[in-house]
Amino acid sequence: MVSLNAIIAALAAASLGLAGADDRPPHVLMLDFMSAVQDERYEDVLAQGAVLTEHPVFAQLPGEGRAMIAAEMGAAHYFRREMDQAELYFIQARTLYPAIHSVSYYLITMYAYSYRSDEASDLFLGIAPNDTSLNDLRPNILMAIAGGLRRNGDMARLDAFLEGVLRRYQPPEGPSGHDWARQMVIERHAEMGRIDEAMQEARNLVGASALMNLRAERRFEELWTWSGFDRITDVRRGMERETQTLRDQLAGRNPALRAAAQLSANLLHLGDIDGAEETARAWLARVEAGERFGDAWEYHALLHVRLADVKRARGDEAGAEARFWRAVETALASDHPEMAGPYLLDIARQQALTGRAREALETLEQVQEDFLTSRGRSITTYIRTLAAHQLGDSSGAEALMADMRENSGLNHLRVLLFTGQMEAAEAALREQVSTPSGAEDILAMLHAYRTHERAVQPALQLEARARLLELAGRPGIAEAIAEAGRILSIDDLYELDLEP
């Protein structure tokens, strides 16, 4: 990338004999422009940039210099949530200098949030080999792109995208950050009957969480009849190994908060609630005492969430909510305030589940929905629907239910169960289990009700669970779930007393 000094020197040399509408010399304009960029004065960035680009000397700059100015103007629009204008400037920057860094990061993020997975994937795969900005992409962005490609049935693009992620993306948490992509690759191999390839890819999984996900889903019968796979996916031993690795990382020269957050989560899963709390508190104290960590922008707030998980494990929902609010405050004070969104959704969801509909809606007002993934938007609709029912807003609830019926069948079913609409819930459940994948989703949902987290569930959730179990045992539904049980774990069926 061309240096700022080189651009200023070029402006000074090229400006001899040229005058613009602004009396300041072009190199001074550039200094003022970069000062506004550094200070995040976005209105000034756009104003100074407009003056620069209209000056006669601008056309004499090398393409790389003009691209840098366009990119900064695009970033200013991006942070002002003016996405259409931002996209125009970013595309202009790439046209002027295709190898420009950082622009790809912004465009891929924008395309992912606007459901343009094909464009995001193509751009990701076309990034220059020396452009490391793709490593700044958050994993949920890449997951959203892959999920969009799968939903659209664009399997050739999905395969190429996953291969590109595994080959080029270097996740901040290390090799375990590839696990989600490897799981999707395993599924693709199994769908195509490439069982040997699926097994080989399974050996590359790193994190215990990935092993648990695969074990819980059990989507492909052939994948789970292989005699050695249980040895690979021995969850507890795998988690214990990963836990020791995390301890070693934290004792090393460059500890990361990601490892601390993951260690706390692992200890909680292993039943060591005191250890989970001690770990989260110790590392939270270090970062809040001023110790610098490169990944603090992402994991500082997550340490508060880990303490919230501990509170829930002990049945202290009020304490858990207070910790989630601390996570929100921490995220909002960071350079990435949009990361508060998932924490706000968790708070709003628990408020709705405990009958505090107005509080839930007030919490949702604080969510920057532009930065939510499709799953986040679906959860938002689910919370609003539940709140509308509680507040007696039947017309509002029905409109939201129609949206969920169209876009999120499982969340639609959940609201029917929460609100006790058993006839409609049975119809929705029968529709879900009418396909093999839908039946698997329902069985996974039953599994989640039992094993999701070590927490005291709100009464409303317990009632919904009981209603689902009642409906799941009815003729036609029970057989479909039992058929899914051939693929999923037999243990998932014990509450239904079904013969798989």
What's the β-strand tally? Answer: 0
Order of helices and strands: HHHHHHHHHHHHHHHHHHHHHHHHHHHH
Looking at the structure, the CATH topology of the domain at 242-331 is Serine Threonine Protein Phosphatase 5, Tetratricopeptide repeat
Rg, Å, rounded: 26 Å
Overall CATH architecture of the domain at 242-331: Alpha Horseshoe
Q: Helical percent range?
A: 55-70%
Strand proportion: under 5%
Mean pLDDT: 77
| Helical stretch tally | 28
What is the CATH level 1 assignment of the domain at 242-331? Mainly Alpha
Question: Would you give an account of this structure?
Answer:
Residues 1-21 form the signal peptide. This is Tetratricopeptide repeat protein. It comes from Alkalicaulis satelles. This protein has 500 residues and is an all-alpha fold. Among the domains are: 171-233, no CATH class; 242-331, Serine Threonine Protein Phosphatase 5, Tetratricopeptide repeat; 336-407, no CATH class; 415-500. The chain contains 28 helices and no strands. It has helices spanning 4-14, 26-38, 42-54, 63-79, 83-96, 103-113, 117-125, 139-151, 155-168, 179-191, 195-202, 208-217, 221-224, 229-232, 235-250, 257-269, 273-288, 296-313, 317-332, 340-353, 357-364, 374-390, 394-407, 409-418, 422-432, 436-451, 459-472, 477-484. The longest helix is centred in the middle third of the chain and has 18 residues, at 296-313. The termini are far apart.
